[in-house]
Amino acid sequence: MSTTVNTFFWFDANVGEAADFYVAAIPNSAVTSSTPGPDGSPFVVTLELAGHSITLLNGGPGHPLNDSASVQVIVETQEEVDRLWDALTSGGGEPGPCGWLTDKYGLSWQVVPSALFTLMSGEPARSMAVNTTMRTMSKLDIKTLQDAYDNA
Fold first, then answer.
1. Whole-structure pTM value
2. Which of 14, 72, 115, 151 is least surrounded by Cβ atoms within 10 Å, i.e. has the fewest?
């Protein structure tokens, strides 16, 4: 017997469009299946985002997406933070605090540089300085976080 864990999101509409948007933004991603609804448009779409399986349902109104659930994308460089931030906020997305954003479909994302985990796991005074600095940011900036760590 095997077990699989998959993230599942209920959308009001546009899951086919959203899936294509996410696959274009996240490297090494693809739509793996799409089930049409009665009108022929995508009803359930499953994608693989950089090795993580996510299913999107065109469930209609009644269960709106909110920031209590998000997709966290961990990247290595500031260039990748910037690229993903720009891609995911394009077309009507909204920046949020501390590396969070909401895309134009209402799904919440965290775009996080991997360096943050190292900086936050250091000695308590330095970790607190990084945490305090991060709380002033929308899109995370690695150099600014490193400076906070180094100057604590």
1. 0.93
2. 151
